[in-house]
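Weekly sync, protein design subgroup
Attendees: M.S., D.O., the rotation student, P.L. (late)

Item 1: inverse folding check
M.S. brought a backbone from last month's batch and wanted to see whether the design step gives back something sensible before we order anything. D.O. pointed out we never logged the input encoding, so this time it goes straight into the notes. Structure tokens as presented (375 positions):
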């Protein structure tokens, strides 16, 4: 089977629940049904994946692993895997969670997941495993099968099971079952519908819906409020959104980070009221910062382009302004979130740390430039 769909739509949960039912059913008939479940995310190579499978089975049946992790061929590991399975199970299902992440080390070779799927799904045909073999591959990637080798595709040839996003009703039912995480009567009536509606609107991910539900509870708890109310849900959602946009910053190139940092510092360190940043001032501060840390210096157009780009992430808004007759036009940047939080996020991982240590000087540069601009 190929279980695919976006994150948090219940793929792992459902395959776990269904196989548990099969295990129980088989047990009542005196059959041994093995469930061999691994998550491929931390695994780098085919060899490690096979070893992980051996370990998982050995653990489950309380047997010796029987092969060393390194220093023997992958073939030996497969052999040990089949040996353990033949000894202890009548039939088996391999569950390979996050299968698309098992790519292996070499780029121009058949990916590791393709080889693994090929081997496991044909192990029954080749009699390496004596009983029935099922393979369930779980992935978020709808195009997963496109990268599978033709040979693997014809032996794996899965039945597709698609897991769509949950809608608000489904999320509500899922959360209903988690009411017991709260004290009796702690939830006001609008909390569950609101969490479900927010979660359905933005992603349909049960894991995130549960996080939001818990976040609202945490907030009420921190404030010693008797009940969890709508406002706790809204604030908790705001926190999550804020954190998400800050995370975006981490992925920016160094030049974009410097541009954003300089602009944010004008908003944060300005002695003037209001935190909008005229682009000529932002650019002067940007030049000062690049000089200080000895980084390349882009033109003013590029600087403005970089900062404007951030408005597409909703971090800032931009407006065109006129300096009055004969003064020309400039852009004005206004931060939607806290400029200080952005600056902190940036210095976490760049050379800009050196600038953060001289905030006094930066502040005087910012204010000198602002005075100059408004003269
Ligand atoms: N139908 C459901 N009923 C109750 N809880 C659910 C349901 N679906 C998902 N959950 C909960 O949501 C969380 C995520 O589910 P799960 O790990 O199964 O998703 P997934 O589709 O495998 O996601 P990923 O691709 O991110 O691994 C888990 O805590 C799970 O218990």
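Designed sequence read out in the meeting:
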């Amino acid at each position: 089977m190929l279980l695919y769909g976006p994150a948090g739509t219940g793929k792992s949960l459902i395959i776990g629940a269904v196989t548990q039912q099969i295990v129980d059913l088989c047990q009542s008939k005196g059959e041994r049904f093995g469930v061999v479940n691994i998550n491929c995310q931390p695994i780098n190579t085919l060899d490690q994946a096979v070893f992980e499978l051996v370990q998982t089975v050995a653990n489950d049946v309380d047997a010796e692993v029987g092969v060393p992790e390194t220093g023997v061929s992958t073939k030996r590991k497969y052999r040990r895997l089949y040996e353990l399975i033949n000894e202890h199970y009548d039939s088996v299902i391999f569950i390979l969670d996050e299968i698309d992440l098992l790519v292996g080390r070499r780029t121009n070779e058949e990916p590791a997941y393709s080889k693994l799927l090929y081997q496991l799904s044909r192990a029954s045909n080749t009699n390496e495993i004596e009983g029935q073999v099922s393979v369930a591959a779980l992935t978020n990637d709808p195009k997963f099968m496109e990268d599978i080798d033709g040979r693997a595709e014809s032996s794996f040839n899965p039945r597709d099971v698609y897991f769509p996003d949950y809608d608000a009703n489904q999320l509500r039912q899922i959360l209903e079952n988690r009411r017991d995480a709260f004290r009796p009567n702690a939830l006001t009536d609008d909390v569950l519908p609101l969490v479900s509606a927010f979660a359905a609107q933005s992603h349909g991910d049960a894991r995130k819906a549960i996080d939001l539900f818990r976040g609202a509870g945490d907030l009420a708890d921190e404030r010693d409020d008797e009940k969890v109310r709508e406002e706790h849900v809204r604030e908790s959602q705001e926190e999550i959104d804020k954190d998400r946009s800050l995370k975006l910053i981490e992925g920016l190139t160094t030049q974009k980070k410097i541009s954003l940092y300089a602009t944010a510092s004008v908003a944060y360190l300005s002695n003037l009221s209001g935190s909008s940043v005229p682009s000529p001032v932002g650019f002067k501060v940007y030049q000062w910062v690049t000089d200080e840390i000895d980084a390349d210096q882009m033109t003013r157009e590029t600087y403005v382009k970089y900062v404007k780009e951030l408005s597409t992430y909703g971090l800032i808004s931009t407006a065109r302004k006129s300096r009055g007759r004969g003064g020309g036009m400039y852009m004005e940047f206004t931060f939607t979130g806290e400029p200080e939080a952005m600056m902190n996020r940036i210095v976490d991982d760049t050379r800009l740390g050196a600038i953060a240590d001289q905030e006094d000087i930066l502040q005087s540069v910012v204010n000198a430039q602002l005075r100059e601009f408004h003269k």
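Discussion: DSSP finds 15 helices and eight strands in the chain. Residues 230-250 form the longest helix (21 residues).
Action: P.L. to compare against the previous round before Friday.
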